[in-house]
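Example S7 (C-alpha cells).
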C-alpha cells in the first residue's frame, strides 16, 4: 500500500530522513540482523531503524558523499565535514544521509563499519564507534580501535584531565563497568561546562526529530543513562 509523505513523516518522526527517501512501497525486505538497539540512548524501537536494502540511487548518492570527504589533516576535520553535510552545505538532498533511516539502511552509515571489520545490520547496529573509527581511518589511514564497540575507546590513547578540541570523549552506561568493552557512547570533544560536554559524534539522538544522526550536542557528564568515563588524547 502506498504511503503518503505526510503519513510517512507522522509514522517515523524523522523529518530529515523522510524528506529525501522514496515511497516505502519501493523497498526490498531483508531479514533482521545482529543489532537490536542503538548504542547511545536507544529511545527508538528497532522497527524505526533501517534494516532493509537501500535503493541503487541512494547508494550512488552515499558513495558521492563518502568520496568527497577530506583526507585530513585530523579526524576531527573529517567529522566536521559530515556536520557540513548535515547542515545542507552540499545540498538539501544530502542532509538525510547523516541520519539513521526508518526503513532502509543508510549506506553512508554502513560504510563507516569498514573501519571496524564488522558487518552491521543496517542502521540498527550501534554506529558511534564506527563513525569515530572511520574518521581516523580517513585522516590517518588507521582506525583508532578498529572495533565497533564504544567501550573499546576506554583503553584508547592516553587519559587526560585537560582535553583539547578533537580529543576523544568516552561515556559508559551506568550498568557497564568493563575496562575495554561495554555499552556507552564515544565522540569528539569540542568544549565543556561544569555539567555537560559538547560532543561531535554519530548516533546522537536529535530531540526535535527523533533521528539518530551525526551532530554536535551537549551530553551530560552524569546523566540518567550515561556517565562520563574519560577523555582520551590521540596518540
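Recovered sequence:
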Amino acid at each position: 500500500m502506498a504511503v503518503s509523505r505526510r503519513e510517512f513523516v507522522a509514522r517515523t518522526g524523522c523529518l530529515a530522513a523522510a524528506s529525501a527517501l522514496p515511497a516505502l512501497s519501493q523497498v526490498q525486505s531483508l531479514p533482521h540482523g545482529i543489532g537490536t538497539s542503538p548504542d547511545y540512548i536507544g529511545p527508538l524501537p528497532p522497527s524505526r531503524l533501517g534494516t532493509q536494502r537501500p535503493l541503487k540511487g541512494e547508494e550512488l548518492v552515499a558513495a558521492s558523499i563518502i568520496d568527497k570527504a577530506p583526507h585530513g589533516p585530523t579526524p576531527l576535520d573529517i567529522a566536521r565535514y559530515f556536520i557540513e553535510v548535515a547542515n545542507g552545505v552540499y545540498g538539501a538532498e544530502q542532509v538525510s544521509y547523516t541520519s539513521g533511516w526508518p526503513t532502509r539502511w543508510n549506506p553512508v552509515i554502513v560504510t563507516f563499519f569498514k573501519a571496524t571489520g564488522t558487518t552491521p545490520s543496517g542502521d540498527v547496529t550501534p554506529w558511534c564507534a564506527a563513525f569515530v573509527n572511520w574518521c581516523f581511518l580517513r585522516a590517518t589511514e588507521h582506525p583508532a580501535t578498529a572495533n565497533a564497540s564504544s567501550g573499546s575507546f576506554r583503553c584508547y590513547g592516553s587519559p587526560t584531565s585537560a582535553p583539547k578540541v578533537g580529543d576523544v570523549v568516552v561515556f559508559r552506561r551506568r550498568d557497564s563497568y568493563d575496562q575495554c568493552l561495554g555499552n556507552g557512547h564515544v565522540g569528539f570533544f569540542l568544549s565543556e561546562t561544569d555539567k555537560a560536554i559538547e560532543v561531535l559524534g554519530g548516533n546522537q539522538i536529535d530531540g526535535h526529530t527523533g533521528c539518530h544522526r551525526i551532530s554536535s550536542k551537549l551530553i551530560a557528564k552524569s546523566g540518567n543513562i550515561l556517565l562520563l568515563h574519560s577523555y582520551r588524547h590521540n596518540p
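Notes on this example. The first strand starts at residue 158 and ends at 160.
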